[in-house]
Hints:
Keywords: FAD, Flavoprotein, NADP, Oxidoreductase. By secondary structure, the chain is α/β, with parallel strands linked by helices.
Amino acid sequence: MTHTPHVAIVGAGPSGLFAAQALLRGHEGVRIDVLDRLPAPFGLLRYGVAPDHASMQGIQRALVAPFTSERVRFFGLVELGRSITRDELVAGYDAVIYAAGASEDRRLHVPGEELPGSRSAREFVAWYCGHPDAEAQQLAGIEAAVTFGVGNVAVDVARVLAASPARLAGTDMPGDVLAELRRASVRDVWVVGRRGPQHASFTTPELRELLGLDGVQPVIDPTDVAGIDETDLDRRVRGNLAALREAADRSVPDAHARLHLRFWRRPVAVLGEDAVSGVVLERTLPAGGTSVVGTREQETIACQLVLRAIGYRGRPLAGVAFDDEAGVIPNRGGRVVRPDGTPSPGEYVVGWIKRGPVGVIGTNKSDAAETVALLLDDLAAEAGVKDAARGPEVDALLASHGLEASSFADWEAIDAEERARGEASGRSRVKVASWSQLTDLVRHGRGGGPLEREHEGEAAPAAEAGLAGDDLS
């Protein structure tokens, strides 16, 4: 009897869905269960791409492809460690792929970092992208904001803070987010990097978009972009330098906001008593490699909001091996390894939780292909070995725990509701952004169409551990 392999993927973001695509192409019989703690798939593509970047969000149309196969099932509202355990998954499947991403933030490690008004850019992005876990962000009274970091996340949050409300009005941002941004009176946005512009990780199109915002005056110290030897710099870095030099000479009459890009500066302290009132920066000099050294030359910037966009790190998954120092699941090419360095049979990893938070969305495609190639090699080598009875799969496991997952049909109900809300407000989509609304759609959207009502601003308990079966009547 030919064995049909069954693979579980933990995480329905780009890395997990690229892995599903690679599995479908690489094995004509494989069956795949994709698990996610949210009722909506697509991960950071849905909740981490700025809403005014519709072209990036269009990648979602490609990532939905695995769910059109009858060999792929989606189980939303399933959290590893709460809904099911790692041991249960490993026992129930021929292979498990962890695609959990990197959901923790790196810290500044300076005095005052814990003050109200100092937070992570990840939290801010989650809010304006409509993530159900996001806390509401209050912008009243904020006239100046400082973002630490010189990558595309810093570009995104700076653009959202500096842009005119009209630019964002047609996006899929939740209504309460748009309302808060309209009420904001941010006049100065600072993007600060501890090294020079030649070391920044901006991509040139995104940087040019930020520097060219209507009604926003770029403020760049010409000395920061002068005298840089470009001989060995790649095309992206040379493009960034050209964009910064052009912006340094740009004059914007009647600007409603100023965008300050400061390089060779690092934070020394966040100031304030009960809330952020400013930051202290120290000028830096290169000290070899990626290191810098302080010069003791300091300046203070008055601000009411500090956002750190200095990188993410992985979070341990319950029961799964983890390298605390690197913030990843230890692996060799995608095979999970034990503390003694030997492979852990049937366990694999893809994406940021495999290699760290580096690369763009497309990087996950080749990364997933590398892992899946090893997985398929292992399945071929073990052909016939796992014909013996396995443990129960995720649907049976959830039933045994009195839980029921959401399905891809439930996501389609959420999708239809968001499109209906968008049509009613002259937009292509409006995000459903609260747990109560999402779980209402899971409960009532099955066969009944999307809900018509709204509860904007309503708080709801997190349902990520799975909905009780009795609640799904």
